[in-house]
């Protein structure tokens, strides 16, 4: 089966609630979203939409004109049907989706504050139940690229890395902090590690920075995102930094990281330069944070 890119990750149903009355309170050098216990509160906006990095990035790739499939694990329930309907609308191939009876599709309740920052309360459900048996490696031998986001299973991550390395398939990887540390700090066979592009935020990078030499050997390009402060890229051709757009009236930051990663990777797959890919990634993330939900603002080419 020939695809330009297959996105592997999570699929969840997002329930987003936005209110100017959500209370942000400093607690021990952190900011906490605190609401009255036992009370009720009205919200100004509510959105029900598909989410999860696997489906978010798949939709972004499809909107860039790339032939895209998605591997996420879902239950057989109403949330799964909403996610599938979204993928149908966005022309993402569903033949590789994993549906498992008896499992519940993941759901995330996202509380969005007036400045666009959010707190996500996530029931991952089926989203983190992918196993190596769920990945159709024989089918994937014909694909040009795989984008891997958080799946909660280090053994599957390592298997995908080895598969891409052996079959010369472009791999971009956007792990969670735990996954990055499991792979770069604790994986027994570090010579088998591989990715073309690694996306990490500032906190994730700090967790693996002690192994910077190894990470640079494994990943051809490392993109370290720092939100509103821009970020930096590390590669064999040189290190550089980039600036984020200065935005006012941000609506919702949900999905910004997925939009950035898919924007960068999709641009590289479309033959764009590193600089062009960064520019598109920033624009893609900007489009997302100006609307509610992780997909509404993704750029369409």
From TrEMBL:
Q: Does the keyword Metal-binding apply?
A: no
Annotated Carbohydrate kinase PfkB domain ranges read 37-296
Provide an example Pfam family for this protein.
Answer: PfkB
Q: Which domain of life is it from?
A: Bacteria
Q: Does the keyword Protein transport apply?
A: no
- SUPFAM superfamilies, alphabetized: Ribokinase-like (SSF53613)
User: What keywords sit in the KW lines?
Assistant: Kinase, Transferase
What is an example of a GO molecular function annotated in this UniProt entry? kinase activity
Family affiliation: Belongs to the carbohydrate kinase PfkB family.
Q: What is this protein called?
A: Carbohydrate kinase PfkB domain-containing protein
Question: Which species?
Answer: Candidatus Cerribacteria bacterium 'Amazon FNV 2010 28 9'
């Amino acid at each position: 089966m020939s695809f330009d890119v297959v996105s592997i990750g999570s699929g969840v149903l997002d329930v987003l609630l936005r209110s100017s009355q959500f209370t942000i309170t400093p607690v021990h050098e952190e900011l906490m979203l605190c609401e009255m216990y036992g009370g009720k509160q009205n919200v100004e906006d509510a959105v029900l939409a598909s989410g999860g990095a696997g489906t978010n990035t798949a939709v972004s790739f499809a909107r860039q004109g790339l032939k895209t499939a998605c591997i996420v694990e879902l239950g057989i329930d109403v949330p799964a049907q909403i996610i599938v309907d979204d993928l149908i609308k966005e022309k993402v191939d569903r033949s590789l989706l994993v549906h498992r009876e008896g499992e519940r599709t993941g759901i995330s309740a996202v509380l969005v504050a007036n400045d666009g920052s959010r707190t996500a309360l996530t029931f991952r459900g089926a989203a983190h139940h992918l196993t190596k048996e769920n990945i159709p490696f024989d089918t994937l031998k014909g694909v040009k690229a795989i984008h891997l986001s958080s799946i909660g299973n280090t053994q599957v991550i390592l298997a995908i890395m080895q598969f891409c390395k052996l079959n010369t398939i472009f791999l971009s990887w956007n792990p969670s902090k735990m996954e990055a540390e499991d792979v770069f700090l604790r994986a027994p066979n570090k010579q088998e590690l591989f990715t073309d592009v690694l996306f990490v935020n500032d906190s994730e990078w700090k967790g693996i920075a002690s192994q910077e030499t190894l990470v640079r050997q494994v990943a051809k390009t490392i993109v370290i995102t720092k939100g509103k402060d821009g970020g930096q890229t590390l590669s064999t051709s040189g290190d550089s930094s980039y600036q984020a757009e200065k935005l006012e009236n941000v609506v919702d930051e949900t999905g910004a990281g997925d939009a950035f990663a898919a924007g960068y990777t999709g641009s590289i797959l479309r033959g764009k330069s590193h600089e062009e890919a960064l520019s598109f990634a920033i624009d893609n993330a900007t489009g997302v944070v100006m609307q509610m939900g992780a997909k509404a603002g993704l750029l369409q080419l």
